[in-house]
Design brief:
The protein has 13 helices and three strands, in the order αααααααβββαααααα. Helix 5 crosses helix 10. It has a three-stranded antiparallel sheet with strand order 1-2-3. 58% of the residues lie in helices and 4% in strands. It folds into two domains: 85 residues, Tyrosine recombinase, N-terminal domain (DNA polymerase, domain 1); 179 residues, Intergrase catalytic core (hpI Integrase, Chain A), CATH 1.10.443.10. The chain is mainly alpha-helical. The longest helix has 22 residues.
Length: 295
């Protein structure tokens, strides 16, 4: 099983060009599944039927795993068996007819415009790290890029004169995203006043670097964001994706069309973007209920 799983992950990386985070997710899900099979005396992947997969999903449910997690696991198993079937390693895909667990559509948590402003005011620009942090927060809110896309930016990915950045999203898809004037100003200040002091080697091409002069990590950005959220007194649970959600919602609230927001976010399917219209409607209802004398 382990050898076949490694070959599948290699196939996803080479043939499908999936991102490292996606590969890790597949590997983690399928490793747990293979461990479950071995614990239940299933000797090889050919012996697996829909009953074993269904039992595994029930095991995940009993362990308190959310419907979204169980759906992702089923999708991973289905993809795995599709590959095995293509390679003639099994006679059929036992997961192909299984139903995905019904999921509650939870609306993403967002910050209000006032909370975003408060957050962006927290970094101390008198410090080299504060100047960098301010630039990062401005960029992620101005563009809605994912945190993985933010930290992957190189110096050549940003054009301050034209006011845009180029990032590589899921599936290695490239997109161009406009960069607002305030973000341009902050990045320019960072590049001239802060980055030269942080980046110890002139050969370093990463746009945002840590105190060791290396590319900033996801964990590093997470800690930075948490720190400033605490300083700002924001009580909501906040993640890097919260700023992406806020970016999309605030654009729609101010008249942006759905297709443009979809393109800026890099969503393959517009239905993924449509959830933000629901947030906008909820916000309008909240304002109405709070403000109208006969609400």
């Amino acid at each position: 099983m382990d050898k076949t799983l490694k070959e599948f992950i290699h196939y996803l990386a080479v043939e499908k060009g999936l991102a490292n985070n996606t590969l890790s997710s597949y590997n983690r899900d399928l490793s747990f599944f293979c461990t479950y099979l071995r614990q239940n005396k299933v000797g090889n992947l050919q012996e697996v039927g829909s009953e074993q997969i269904t039992d595994y999903l029930y095991t995940l449910q009993a362990a308190g795993k959310a419907a979204a997690t169980r759906s992702r696991n089923l999708a991973s198993i289905r993809s795995f068996y599709h590959y095995l079937f293509q390679e003639k390693l099994v006679e059929n895909n036992p997961a192909v007819d299984l139903q995905f667990p019904r999921q509650e559509k939870k609306l993403p948590r967002i910050l209000s415009t006032q909370e975003v402003v408060l957050l962006l005011e927290q970094p101390d620009e008198r410090q080299v790290t504060g100047m960098r942090d301010k630039a990062m927060l401005e960029v992620i809110y101005a563009t809605g890029v994912r945190v993985s896309e933010l930290i992957s930016l190189d110096l050549g990915n940003i054009n301050l004169e034209a006011g845009f950045l180029r990032c590589i999203g899921k599936g290695s898809k490239e997109r161009i995203v406009p960069l607002g004037s305030q973000a341009v100003c902050q990045v320019r200040s960072y590049l001239t006043g802060s980055r030269p002091k942080l980046a110890r080697k002139t050969s370093e091409i990463s746009l945002f670097v840590n105190q060791h002069g290396k590319r900033l990590t996801r964990q590093g950005f997470w800690k930075i964001l948490k720190k400033y959220a605490r300083q700002a007194g924001i009580k909501k649970e906040i993640t890097p994706h919260t700023l992406r959600h806020s970016f999309a919602t605030h654009l729609l609230e101010n008249g942006a069309d759905l297709r443009s927001v979809q393109e800026m976010l890099g969503h393959a399917d517009i239905s993924t973007t449509q959830i933000y219209t629901q947030i906008s409607k909820n916000q309008l209802k909240y304002v109405y209920d709070r403000s109208h004398p006969r609400a």
